[in-house]
Structures are given as structure tokens and as C-alpha cells.
Amino acid sequence: MATPRLSARPYNATALPCELLLDVFARDKDPPVLMTLALVCHQWKDVVYNQRSLWTQVAIQPSTTLRQLRAQLTRSGDLELDVEIIFVPWDLSEESRQVLSVAMDQYERIRCLNVDSLRLHDEDVDDMFGFLDWPEDATEHLSDFSYWPCLRTLELVADKFDVGDFSLYIVAPDLSELYLAGVPAMGWYGAFFALAADVRTLKLKNQIDLVGFFQSLRLFPSLQHLSLDDEDGARVLFSQELPGFRPFVLVNLVSFHFNWLDADVGMFLKFLACCPALVDLSASAVFKQHGQVDVPQSLQLRLLTKFFLRMGGRNTESNLLELLLPALQTARLQHITLWSATLEPTDISSLITPNLLSLELGNLRCDMLALLQAIQRCHRLVDLWLHNLYNTSTNILAPEDTVTLLALRKASFDVSPPDSPTLPLGASRGVALFPAFWALMPLPDITSVTIEGIDLSMDYLMPMLREVGSRSDDLLSLEVELVEDYAFFTLCSATAAGARDYDSDIIRKFETNAFLESLALMNHESTNIFSRLASLTVAIGGAAVLFLCFALLSNRSAGGLASLRCVTIWIPANVTNEAVVASLDATVRACTSRPIRCQHLNRVFFEHTKYGPDMVIPKQLADAFVACFKSDIQHVSIESGCVDLIA
């Protein structure tokens, strides 16, 4: 008997325009995604396979096969390519080498190239990793004077010195963005740079031949953004070892960022004198001064709007800030960040002006009365960060004399023990400044408040938490850690799925000895916080006490933790496996008879840092912990990160 054929039943469907499909598909041109789209229907398959522009984004991973790469190159036709290559030098198979070779053979079509051998870096092989060369398959056309007619963006990232004898040497006349990390360039006067006059963005990290680089800067007349970073401190930036450095003008340079171990103040000022168009200046280094330093008369920073200065070591090694002040006084500063410096009252009044939109001060010595008087004149200030300030006088501004900054939306105050050994410990770090700082904040309009190193009393907690409850009905995320009887809280917005929203505008980060009162306040109808919690993260240390509190409080309120979707147990690196098991067991014993009311809980997550010791939790104990929550969801999933759940 013949097999009956399926009837060709007509479907009420309208084919979407090809242009619309192409625009949608182009939003994610990852080949596996495209292949999935092609399975939907014949129309989508035709669009995916016939539109060459969808196949121009080539992403090569260690798992990429030669067949996959060749298929994508064929479908892309002769269009320009954006190529990203991620590989591990110590784990290259023969096919992986062939994939690299075939990809690099397309150099005449490549518009954007990103080669990265660090993204999959494994710390377990760190000692070996730094001495492995990049394979010739990846470097051949980058070091043989090849002509790259389409190249506009080039990014090469490697561990320092792991590229062996490889040195960049190509001709790329249309290059506009160059980023080299750990990859040296062969002769900064080479033909590559002579033909790269249109380079606008140049970022260098862990470079060797900086002498040649500074001598060749005049070959970059279009340069707008320059970034120099040597986190390992291999050389002294702007040292007196630059005999060929001669003044010239970088008329188009608008941003200059550098992060170095040591920097000579005199040479740094001479370089700034060559950059009259700077808008954004960021400098982080131990600035050293050799004798008398004269500020170049040509130094001008009139267009500067963003200024970042972090002086490492003892800030007595140079008076860089004092030398820069005359030029900074003529600038149009709107954003200032100063770390590890000393400010005199006259410096404060000239730097901190009403034009400021953001101000961050850390490990700073200053007269706090003069500082607060200057800050409260900044009526446009949106962001304010004060960290570990040291009062050089006994004067302080009383809260009742402080003017509230109505435009302020983000504020941070930190008097935790400073990293800098040059600042003394104790109340002089700025604890006395806190009442005046609090008076600056425009509650309830301020969205983000971070206070660290201060034991907040209920007088401060009540207005801060009630303000969150009055703002909106958005879901919230709460992270809490209990150390003995001292609690650390982070409260912010959450996603609908029950995860912390790291782009949240609403942030309350604080610490207090009154953790029971804090939890009770969050459960009160005046704050409406408990009922809006979608995500709860508890550090394992005080888990038993905290979950018992949540159990008691959730049963007192009408809805309990009605919005809770996810509970995370956070296990820090310094906690032993035995302590984790004991804490979970104590939590189970404390809460079994008092389950936490959370009708919509669907996920429990055990999270441990991969840098800590191996962590093993019995599956039976994990199930017993989940049973501490009274959820309407029948099957609450148990997940783990760097934690083994054993039967």
C-alpha cells in the first residue's frame, strides 16, 4: 500500500521583504546563528545563503575547522572582511595552524583584524605561556612588508615577549586605529608608519622601543587619541633616555592616556606643551623630578575638559600638580579625578569650580573646610566620590552650614583603610567629614549612594532606604555579607529574570552594626523592599543567621518575598569546604521549621571563585537547603559555579 502524502496545506503567512530580513540578520552575523536562521524556511535560507554581506564577520576560535572557515570565505565572495582570531599558543593542532594560515592569506580583503592570544589565558600554565612564540601561520603577513590595501583597524594582543622574534612590519595606507599589546613594531620609521598618515587612534601596551616611537610621532599628523600603558613597568616613560626627542606640535591630539611605573616630570611637561588641543588627559605614574623643572611657556590646556591624575608612590617625589596648576586654571574642566596628591586651599579654589559635572578625590591631603566650601559651589555636580581624605587642618564644615547639591545623582564616601602607606590610619582619614557629605546629598532625588568604612546608624539608614521604596516599583537585588555582627549590604535594581542589573542607576551600598534593624526596615511597608526583591545573594559566612532573619521577617509580612526568583550562596576564596558545609547545615537546621515564604523562587545558585580551593557540597544538603524556601514552583533548579554537587 502506498504511503499517503502529506497534504500541501496552504499557510496564512506573508513573506517578509528581503531588505528587512537582511537588516535583522545583520545584527548578529555569527555563522552558527545564521545557519539556525536558514533552517526556518526557504525564504530565510535563500536570504542567508545568497547575501554575501552576512558572511563578512569571521570569528576564529580554537574549535573552528578548516571546512567551516572555507565555507564562510566562499559565501562572503570578494567583500571586505572583519576578522577576529583567538588562539592559545601552547595548544595549536595542525588543523588550527591551517585555519590561521588560510585566514591570514585573506590580508588583501581584511578591513578589521583582531588577533588575541590572551583571552583564553590559563593561569595554570602561566610560567610556560610567557615563553611561547606566536606561530608563523599567524604572523607571516604581519611581518613581511605585505601590502594591506583595506586595513582600517588592527588590534594585536599578546603576553609580553611571547611573540618571539615577530615584529609588526606591514604597509597599510588606510589604517586609522592601531592597538598593540605586547607586540613590538619593527622600526617606527618603517614604511608601514610612513604610509599610515591617517592613523587617528594609537594604543600601545607593554612596548619595548619607545625611543623610536617618540621620534616617529611626527609621522602621525592625523593622530587624535594616544594611549600608552606599561603595567609591568619595564621602562621609564618620558625618561631622560630620549635624546632624539625634539618639540613638535600634535595639533589634532585631543586625548592622551598613559599608565606607567615611573615618569620624568620635565619630559612629561615638554610633551604636553606639544598638545595644545587636548580635551582629555589621563596620567597614572610615579612622577619623578630631577632638580629644578621649568614649565614650558608654550604649555596650554585651554580646551581640557577631563583631567585624571594618579600619582603613585610618595607624592613628595615631585610637585607635578603645582607645576600644572597655571595651565589648568585656564582650562574648561568639567570632570576631575585626583589620587594621591596634596592640595593647598588656593589649589582647591582654582581647580574645583562651579563648572564641574564630576569630581573624584582619593588618598588626598587637603583642608577639608576649603574643600567642602568649594564643592558646595558646584551646583551642576552630578557625580561626587570622596575616598580616604586626610584633613591637613582641624577645620570642618558643619552639616547645618552645608548647601545641598540638587543636581547630584551619584555619591560615594569611603574611609576604609587606604592602600597608600603614605596616609595615616584613624579618624583623620575623613570620618569627621561624613555628616557634611551626607548633607550634600539631595534625598530622595539621588539615585546611587555608596558609603564604606562608616557604621551607619538608623538615623542615616531610614531616609536612605525609605527613599528607595518611594522611587518606583522596580524589582530589586540584595547582596549581604555578615561578619560577626557587622553587615555589608548592596541594594540595586534587578532584571525580570531575577539577576542583578549591573547597569542599575539605583544603588545603595553601605555597612552597619544594626543589621537586624536594617532587615526589619527593608521589610516595612514604608520601604517596600522585601516584596520587590527578585534576587538575593548571601555570603556563606553568616548564612544561617541571615536566612533565619529572612524566614522570620518573610512570615511577618503579608506577601513575604513575593517577587524573589533567585537565591545565590556566594562562597569567597578564603572559606574552607568544611566551613561551607557547616554553614549550610546550620541554615537547614535553623530554617526547616520556619520556611522562607517566596512563592516564585525557581533557582538556587551556589557560586564559588575559581581561584579558591576545590569546593564540594553534598547534593542531599543542597536539596535540604532548597527545602528551606516555601515556593509554589514544584521544581526549583539547583545550579553551581565552580562548585561540585555530589550524590
List keywords for this structure.
29 strands; 647 residues; two-stranded parallel sheet; disordered N terminus; 23-stranded mixed beta sheet; 25% helix; globular; alpha/beta
Secondary structure tally, helices: 19
- How big a fraction of the residues is strand? 15-25%
Sheet with the most strands, sense and barrel status: 23 strands, mixed
User: What is the typical, i.e. mean, pLDDT?
Assistant: 81
Structural class: alpha/beta
User: Overall 3D geometry?
Assistant: globular
Would you identify the regions where 5 or more consecutive residues have pLDDT less than 50? 1-14, 123-131, 235-244, 419-428
Q: State the end-to-end CA separation.
A: 54 Å
Organism: Exidia glandulosa HHB12029
Protein name: F-box domain-containing protein
Pfam families: F-box-like
Domain F-box: 10-58
